[in-house]
Amino acid sequence: MDETEFDIPAAMAESVRSRAGAWAFVRGFAAHWGEPLGPEDGFTDAELDAAERRLGLRLPAALREAYRLFGRRADLTSSHDVLLTPDELHVLDGALVYRAENQGCAHWGVPLADLGREDPPTVGRLDLADKSQERWEPSEDRFSTAAVAMAMMEKLLEDHELADFLDSEGDLPGDLRELPALGRDFRWYQGPEVLVGVAGDAWVAARARTPEALEALYEAVPGQWLGE
């Protein structure tokens, strides 16, 4: 797919305006940076209905839509952290847990009090040695935003020859274009045939479309890249 066929800044901006925009972004992003989504990439209504019966609650519309659209696509959901399958969804201290950090150091969920909303907010919780200090903290204002940010970062963290990772606290060079804000803890940048995500101020993940674009990124952003 040509670069001009997926306008990532416009698609990102539209993704925060509506659920339809969010899912349109995921479709375009998946096709541009990997393989187009297919029917087999999502869970079925029957599987989601079974989860509702087991849990005794109704899943929000946005969560069902995301699971049906791309819940089985590991490159968009589970390259690093893990989107729980419908039969793994569970309730913890007032929230429906849908995602876990890859070593169990954190979890993300939807407050039970907000399950009636079509696109509810999400919360996050660190796994602490002192369990009495664990608390759910606000994460994203809408589940669909959390799902889009997940898809982007998991794709960047995919084990792929054109993906790489850098521990860095420095600023990125000005020739990388900053993209619209999406996700509370992330910043996004675009360069020629390359996408870069910054998690807080701690680390950088990048995905290139060609080996040449990745080499150009190494020159633009020096440091201890894992794959260099």
Features:
single chain, 228 residues, SMI1/KNR4-like, 2 domains, 32% helix
Q: What's the short story on this structure?
A:
With 228 residues, this protein is of the alpha+beta class. 32% of the residues lie in helices and 21% in strands.
In words, what does this structure look like?
There is one protein chain. The protein has 228 residues and is α+β, with helices and mostly antiparallel strands. It has two domains: 3-149, SMI1/KNR4-like; 160-220. Helix content is 32%, strand content 21%. The chain contains seven helices and eleven strands. It has helices at residues 8-15, 19-33, 45-55, 61-70, 74-77, 143-156, 211-220; strands at 82-83, 90-92, 95-100, 106-111, 123-126, 137-138, 163-167, 177-178, 186-191, 194-199, 203-208. The strands form two sheets. Strands 1, 2, 3, 4, 5 and 6 form a six-stranded antiparallel β-sheet that branches. Strand 2 and strand 3 (95-100) form a beta hairpin. Helix 1 runs antiparallel to helix 2 (19-33) and helix 2 (19-33) packs parallel to helix 6 (143-156). The longest helix has 15 residues, at 19-33. The radius of gyration is 18 Å and the shape is globular. 37% of the residues are buried.
